[in-house]
Amino acid sequence: MKRTDLTQSDRHPVRGAGLGFRRGLLRELEQHDGSGIDFFELAPENWIGVGGALARRLRAFTERFPFVAHGLSLSLGGPAPLDERLLQDVRDFLDLHGIRAYTEHLSYCTDDGHLYDLMPIPFTSDAVRHAAARIRRAQEILERPIAVENVSYYAAPGAELPEIEFVTAVLEEADCGLLLDVNNVFVNSVNHGYDPVEFLHALPAERVWYFHTAGHFVEAPDLRVDTHGAAVCDDVWDLLAAAYRRYGPVPTLLERDFNFPPLGELLGEVARIRRLQAGVPRAAQAVAARPGA
Predict the structure, then answer these.
(1) What is the pLDDT of residues 189-213, one digit of tens each?
(2) What kind and span of H or E run contains 269?
(3) Domain 8-288 is classified in which CATH homologous superfamily?
(4) How far is CA 242 from CA 162, 197, 205, 236, in A?
(5) CA-CA to 108 of 20 to 30 Å: which in 5, 78, 279, 283?
């Protein structure tokens, strides 16, 4: 890869507390002075090829704020050939806007066509090798390292490995980073009956680039649905605090994809992220900073 890899001492591409950059928020964001937001994240598929006034509006933000990009459609675990044309377009887009990092979902969303959902990769050794090879190829084309996100899932067909073993094996085999979605850990822990704090402690701290947190829908006491359409609940805030105790004050992004409240409410959640980060004990920060922690 031509571009500099993120080192252990500087593996976080951004700092602080960020907000998902959504077109539904664009007008309010343009009227806001930017205070309280340390960085933004966007989906490159929603902006690649966009020109005219909308492109200029995006540029006004990428020139002022740090940005990261989170892909939606690469289908890293899918059976269809890897979309190398998309990767080339993503690379050019990242370069054009000076975007600091690119991440994708550890899932698949294509077969003969686009499935319009993020499907769970079977937790098998063969799938580890398949996904890892595609991640390595993606990094070659992008000319930079990437991170993959642990996803929510509602069934695990053909599973031979626990989720935690599958995720960590892919990270090791692909030699890539981790975008740790704390809400997804909580949702999966309820739906599949495991301890979310134990899951956090089993992941490799040295591979974590940044966190996601978001709201979800309570379908039943034992069924949560990852929606990004509600405020973050108390249980997820508590798990985020536990994640900071484990990893230190990792940069964290608030995701909200629809049912947008007034921008001030979202900024209140971003401010709560920052308060939790500030409350991390120094001892926890020091432990989390060690290689292999």
Answers:
(1) 999 999 999 999 999 999 999 999 9
(2) helix 263-278
(3) Divalent-metal-dependent TIM barrel enzymes (3.20.20.150)
(4) 22, 7, 13, 10
(5) 5
Residues in a beta bridge with 260? none
If we measure between CA atoms, which residue out of 231, 249, 233 comes closest to residue 241?
A: 249
Residues with Cβ within 8 Å of 216's Cβ and at least 6 positions away in sequence, in order, are 183, 186, 187, 224, 225, 226, 227, 228, 230, 233, 236
- Rounded to whole angstroms, the Cα distance separating 141 from 132 reads 14
CA 199/CA 189 separation, integer angstroms: 9
Lowest mean pLDDT of 44-53, 76-85, 260-269, name the range: 76-85
Angle, helices 52-62/84-97, rounded to nearest 10 degrees:
60
**What are the b/e assignments for 240-273, b being 16+ CB within 10 Å?**
bbbbbbbbbbbbbbbbbeeeeeebeebbebbebb
What are the residue boundaries of the structural domains of the chain, listed by start?
8-288
Residues 95 and 40 sit within 8 Å (Cβ to Cβ): no
The alpha carbon of residue 271 and the mean position of all alpha carbons in its chain are separated, in whole angstroms, by: 19
Question: How long is the chain?
Answer: 293
Residue 224 · residue 217 · CB < 8 Å: yes
Alpha helices by DSSP H, listed for 121-257, are: 125-142, 163-174, 182-192, 196-202, 234-247
- Bridge partners (DSSP) of residue 42 are 69
- What secondary structure does DSSP assign to 141-175, as a single string? HHTS--EEE----S--TT--S-HHHHHHHHHHHHT
Please name which of 205, 74, 228 lies closest in space to residue 146, comparing C-alpha atoms. 74
Q: What is the pLDDT of residues 148-163, one digit of tens each?
A: 999 999 887 788 999 9
Residue type present at position 222: D
Q: How does DSSP classify residue 112?
A: S
